[in-house]
Amino acid sequence: MLIYLNRPLECKGEVEDLTEAKCLEIHGVSENIHTLSRLNTSLCWQQSRNQWLREGDANSKFFHSTMSSRRQRNAIRYVLVYGVLIEGVEPVQNAIFTHFSQHFRAQNVERPSVANLHFRSLFLAEWGGA
């Protein structure tokens, strides 16, 4: 209804100059339209939340069954360590922890060093500098 009331003023503004009062009226009506639109959106959102709380979600059974099957697929139920099958939560955790702690343990490995290497020195003419 407010949109209909606002339209004649806009059409009148296209044909002739509007007074300051008419411009303020247009802005006031436009502001009211936007305010009512925001209130309507908020009300619709609140009503949808209320309906969801009352009736629940139709997809919750599907969602929970999907998540349950994914959790089962991602679970590590057993590990084969040196030909021995290890089962159970704590034994599997210990086997995995032991494997990675040994794998990433710091080892005393003699690594090559550049301290004893001799590099050829470049003279200024070879370098191409000043």
What's the total number of strands? 2
The low-confidence parts are 1-5
Q: Helix proportion of residues, in percent?
A: 55-70%
Largest sheet: 2 strands, antiparallel
Tell me the overall shape.
flat
Query: What is the helix/strand order?
Result: HHHEEHH
Task: Explain how this protein is built.
The chain has 130 residues and is mainly alpha-helical. Among the domains are: 2-54; 76-103, no CATH class. The chain contains five helices and two strands. It has helices at 2-15, 20-55, 60-74, 89-103, 124-127, and strands at 78-81, 84-87. It has a two-stranded antiparallel sheet. It is flat and about 90 Å long. The termini are far apart.
Q: Helix and strand layout, with pairings?
A:
Elements: H1 2-15, H2 20-55, H3 60-74, E1 78-81, E2 84-87, H4 89-103, H5 124-127
Antiparallel strand pairs: 1-2
Keywords:
130 residues, single chain, disordered N terminus, two-stranded antiparallel sheet, 65% helix, mainly alpha
Would you summarize the structure shown here?
By secondary structure, this protein is mainly alpha-helical. It has five helices and two strands; from the N terminus they run αααββαα.
